[in-house]
């Protein structure tokens, strides 16, 4: 199993997807912090209108504007942007059609939501278009404003459709300004500048969806990046004891002797409880190892992130970022 | 004091006709739905469970091999329930197609089915799965072949999507805009035009440039055909919505003992109460209660450190550490659930201890059913 590769280091747009419930927003935020470590400037983007970044960093909802939300070790900084398809459409229309005041009225009437729903591909084209603009934006010195952009993307079931702008465009007008813009998006997403990372858990469904997503990404000529395995539990049992214990065979006499040696005199009930807990632990470890083996079929760089017993707060994001940095993320 | 959610009386009550399992993605809704259905069947009811996107092994344990969109009796060797158990997987596209075929004449149906806009909406619009789940539920109720229907809901981040998505879809498809955009000359939108002024015509032009005149035309054709066929999306969504509010329906909110899942569960609980929809209670799924309750974590860790220093008894040291891990997890889960019950003291709750591995057969489902019932 390889960890972060040289190729991934060259990517400037890191797309993070994963099955719902795997913690993809958390991991996207930790990845942004990791990439910013050492003094870089990173932009973290969300596109699903859920304000998850604001919740994660425990702050007020983000406006449709880039704001600095965190500092990273070594003078790095993470900025955040919540892209809203309706705002993006208005911005876009304003650029080409000078809608002015009418734009706001139309929005109030639900016209914009209507337009983006009418052509589901339109929403994706607008969102990825804005992402591209952020990735390519340069400062007055001619250098990229952001060293890297992390996109908290839709879940695995929808991510390929989301990124496959060429397909979406087939449904839309063949001419006009949006056509030109989307060609640039296609170039960026299919280039070495972009990597699509997948967040997985060591359970049946997330593993299956991860492998399916890798196949789909390959088929669409998009580049799978790394598999980020979230919430990995510590393995406490010695390797040789796992399979025996998983079959329910834990040598209670040996456990008791050990406990006594440590000065613990436990009643029979507690000892039985400990044995049951050990069997459950072993079964879980075993099924997680099987899941890990399945994941390795993807042949992608894999990074394991630990389960955080105290839950995810801002401090935990830094902890996860450290793990990513240790795995070679930069 | 929070009441315990008691499933057996609920499952046994002939007045319970529909149970909807909802919650955010990845919390185990499908498994919960299947386990409740199995338990109800074994307690004597004629049950059908409508699953949406089940894990492969779970589907196999119910004998479901493919999406065929019709309930099949669960036939597994040695499985002889007192009642009967049927299961199905939702095929969103097929459900939509069937709906069109049933209500439109053959020619008209062909026309709709081949409409490019229909194809987009029926396969990729984000609210369609929710809409079709409701539609299928309506059909199962109308068939009146089962005395209990257990429904799983589509995997979305927000549990509220199940209630909102059909409405969202119908708002779009019933809207004035689609008519005005597709046929501005015929639209009786004079008043509206006056308010928005030239902005609207600019908007129309802009939108048709972006999405293409053809797509607008297709959309308009589709909506008109659909409208005359069903009296509109909105009405149809509204009818199913009413069904969810009728006596005999109950909502089971499923959440993992995690902040995000519980936050979603909170929103959902509040929403159900605001809409007068009957909530059965909360399933706190996959908890990890401590089994060896008399051994505090700190004591276990101290002893493990002792053992590690001496290098003796590695097995006992491992056992102590995994116990301490478990205590920490259980404490956190308890804390999170306590926060939920403080905010919603009236919501009955049951904790379902996690099975150490994924469910892959009926025995596994039966075990979850026992845990749901608090056995």
What can you tell me about this protein's structure?
Chain A is elongated. Chain A is of the alpha/beta class and 330 residues long. Chain B is α/β, with parallel strands linked by helices. Chain B has two domains: 270 residues, P-loop containing nucleotide triphosphate hydrolases (Rossmann fold); 35 residues. About 3% of the residues of chain B have low confidence.
Task: Tell me the layout of helices and strands.
The complex is a heterodimer of chains A (330) and B (375).
Chain A: H1 6-10, E1 13-18, H2 24-36, E2 41-46, H3 52-56, E3 67-72, E4 76-82, H4 85-97, H5 101-108, H6 111-118, H7 120-136, E5 148-152, H8 156-163, H9 165-171, H10 177-189, E6 194-200, H11 204-219, E7 224-232, H12 239-246, H13 252-261, H14 268-296, E8 302-306, H15 314-326
Parallel strand pairs in A: 1-5, 1-6, 2-4, 2-5, 6-7, 7-8
Antiparallel strand pairs in A: 3-4
Helix pairs in contact in A: 2-15, 4-7, 6-7, 7-9, 7-10, 8-11, 11-14, 12-14
Chain B: H1 7-12, E1 18-22, H2 29-42, E2 46-51, H3 56-61, E3 72-73, E4 84-89, H4 92-103, H5 106-113, H6 116-124, H7 128-143, E5 148-152, H8 161-174, H9 176-182, H10 190-196, H11 198-211, H12 213-230, H13 233-245, E6 249-256, H14 259-274, E7 279-287, H15 297-310, H16 314-343, E8 349-353, H17 362-372
Helix pairs in contact in B: 2-17, 4-5, 4-7, 7-8, 7-13, 8-13, 9-12, 14-16, 15-16
